[in-house]
Description:
The N and C termini lie far apart (67 Å). Helices cover 81% and strands 0% of the residues. The protein has one domain. The chain is mainly alpha-helical. Residues 1-38 are annotated as: Disordered.
Amino acid sequence: MGTFENRKPHHRGGVEELYRQSASSTHAIGEERETSEKNTVQLAKVCLFLVQLRIGKAGIGQRIGVLLLG
């Protein structure tokens, strides 16, 4: 059939394009995971504060800190 030299150049470009798209989507997934982890940590901190507030162990510094966090 055909040898390597006879292959059309667009085949190689297609593979390069697929690789670029794959790398791009992998990067986006990594960013989403990082954002999700940050949100989870933030949520855990707020929940801990609310529990401490409920049992009366949250100090003034913690209350101000949570207010500043948003």
